[in-house]
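Worked example 3 (structure in, sequence out).
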């Protein structure tokens, strides 16, 4: 793959794995999985996603196993992730009840994902929330994070 077609580093939250088996979200979720298999996307999987997947049905957990080992980067919860997550909560971007959703965004940001992919329209893929997450990111010296649903992603062969 040339530098022009460098893979996108996409943090994937748990909803995308479940979306593969949900009639409403299956087609774009499967297109995302295919893009990972083809090397177009490097799937960044956080500790929060792995913990949530551990409680998911077997068929949802199996989606991660479809990814080639070279197509997955595991992202831990570092001090930086915890500090950024807590800053989101203190700023009121999300209430403490939705701490894991804030952790997804903080993990993607601290581990320098190109984007975060989710079906969570209430807390993550939400115009107002994205603006607030990015305001905190900029205030603390991080770059802005792009946040999209799999439906918004287009691939070269779809053009």
């Amino acid at each position: 793959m040339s530098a022009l077609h460098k893979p996108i580093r996409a943090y994937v939250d748990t909803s995308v794995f479940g979306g593969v088996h949900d009639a409403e979200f299956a087609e774009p979720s499967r297109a995302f999985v295919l893009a990972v298999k083809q090397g177009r996307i490097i799937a960044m999987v956080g500790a929060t996603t792995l913990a949530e997947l551990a409680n998911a049905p077997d068929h949802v957990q199996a989606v991660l196993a479809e990814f080639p080992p070279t197509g997955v980067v595991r992202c831990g919860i570092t001090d930086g992730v915890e500090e950024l997550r807590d800053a989101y909560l203190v700023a009121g971007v999300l209430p403490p009840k939705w701490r894991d959703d804030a952790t997804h965004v903080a993990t993607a940001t601290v581990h320098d994902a190109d984007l975060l992919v989710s079906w969570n329209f209430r807390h993550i893929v939400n115009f107002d929330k994205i603006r607030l997450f990015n305001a905190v990111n900029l205030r603390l010296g991080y770059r802005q994070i792009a946040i999209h649903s799999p439906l918004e992603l287009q691939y070269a062969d779809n053009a």
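Notes: The chain has one domain: 15-153. The chain is about 45% helix and 15% strand.
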